[in-house]
């Protein structure tokens, strides 16, 4: 089945470069016929996003600092002025101090805990409320999570707690916004070679371990995550809400490594 997003418009938040999951989603939505706007935070990210969006014919780029109410108000006011309404929003924003994505979780600082939860979780709640105001006929909100929310992943630390909160927020938002015809879901890819993923200590070993032990013996691709996002944003996903959709080659079902990958018995 070919899914068409023709006539649908939406905002993609969190593109950092061409290897970003957010960019993989944007490409898939564009190829399905959707019209896209993008957000950025800071001039460095703006310079990275501009050539990417130009390549797919997008001309709406708004600055959106998710820790600043005035910035978000201005971003969504621009969308309202240009389009009036939107059909979907993709939230791919998370942050934690790289120095704390190493060592022990119990050494997490108060300041970084607050920052990580604010940027990685509360921002989705904040932008969802604003996006919902531009969805009079319903729509779809998507965020990105990771299995470190449910199981201990080495060095993922406070981000695991932030993603757990994000998944819970997804369910509460789905319940709040469902009566308006707005669906809210999270996509949970396995380890991916992205700028954000590289910040976690031991990322390469985690990527290889998941690839080796996943039932499909592979980690997700940007195209696979993008295809899932197209489904969730389209009419084909009209009755899916409050879900965490895993796109990880099945790794999340595994309790132990393959027998041939385990240390020999002594």
From TrEMBL:
Enzyme Commission no: 1.3.1.9
Pfam families linked to this entry: adh_short_C2
Catalytic activity: a 2,3-saturated acyl-[ACP] + NAD(+) = a (2E)-enoyl-[ACP] + NADH + H(+)
Entry-linked Gene3D superfamilies: Enoyl acyl carrier protein reductase, NAD(P)-binding Rossmann-like Domain
UniProt pathway annotation: Lipid metabolism; fatty acid biosynthesis
Listed InterPro entries: Enoyl-ACP_Rdtase_NADH, NAD(P)-bd_dom_sf, SDR_fam
Superkingdom as given in the UniProt entry: Bacteria
Keyword Oxidoreductase: yes
List of residues binding NAD(+): 14, 20-21, 41, 65-66, 93, 163
Active site: 146, 156
Molecular-function GO term, any one: enoyl-[acyl-carrier-protein] reductase (NADH) activity
Any one GO biological process: fatty acid biosynthetic process
Keywords: Fatty acid biosynthesis, Fatty acid metabolism, Lipid biosynthesis, Lipid metabolism, NAD, Oxidoreductase
Family: Belongs to the short-chain dehydrogenases/reductases (SDR) family. FabI subfamily.
Protein's recorded name: Enoyl-[acyl-carrier-protein] reductase [NADH]
Species whose genome carries this gene: Roseisalinus antarcticus
Gene: fabI_1
């Amino acid at each position: 089945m070919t899914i068409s997003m023709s006539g649908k418009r939406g905002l993609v938040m969190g593109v950092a470069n061409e290897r970003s999951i957010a960019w993989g989603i944007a490409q898939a939505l564009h190829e399905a016929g959707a019209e896209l706007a993008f957000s950025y935070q800071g001039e460095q990210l703006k310079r990275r996003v501009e050539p990417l969006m130009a390549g797919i014919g997008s001309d709406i780029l708004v600055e959106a600092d998710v820790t600043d109410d005035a910035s978000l108000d201005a971003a969504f006011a621009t969308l309202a002025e240009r389009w009036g309404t939107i059909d979907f929003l993709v939230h791919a924003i998370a942050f934690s101090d790289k120095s704390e994505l190493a060592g022990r979780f119990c050494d997490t600082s108060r300041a970084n805990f607050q920052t990580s939860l604010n940027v990685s979780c509360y921002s989705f709640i904040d932008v969802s409320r604003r996006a919902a105001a531009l969805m009079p006929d319903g729509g779809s909100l998507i965020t990105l999570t990771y299995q470190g929310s449910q199981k201990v992943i080495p060095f993922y630390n406070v981000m695991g707690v932030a993603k757990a909160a994000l998944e819970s927020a997804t369910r509460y938002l789905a319940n709040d916004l469902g009566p308006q015809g707005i669906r809210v879901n999270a996509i949970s890819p396995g380890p991916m070679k992205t700028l954000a993923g590289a910040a976690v200590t031991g990322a390469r070993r985690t990527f290889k371990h998941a690839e080796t032990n996943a039932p499909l013996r592979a980690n997700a691709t940007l195209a696979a995550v993008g295809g899932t996002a197209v489904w969730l944003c389209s009419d084909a996903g009209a009755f899916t809400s409050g879900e965490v959709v895993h796109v990880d080659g099945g790794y999340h079902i595994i309790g132990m490594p393959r027998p041939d990958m385990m240390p020999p018995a002594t």
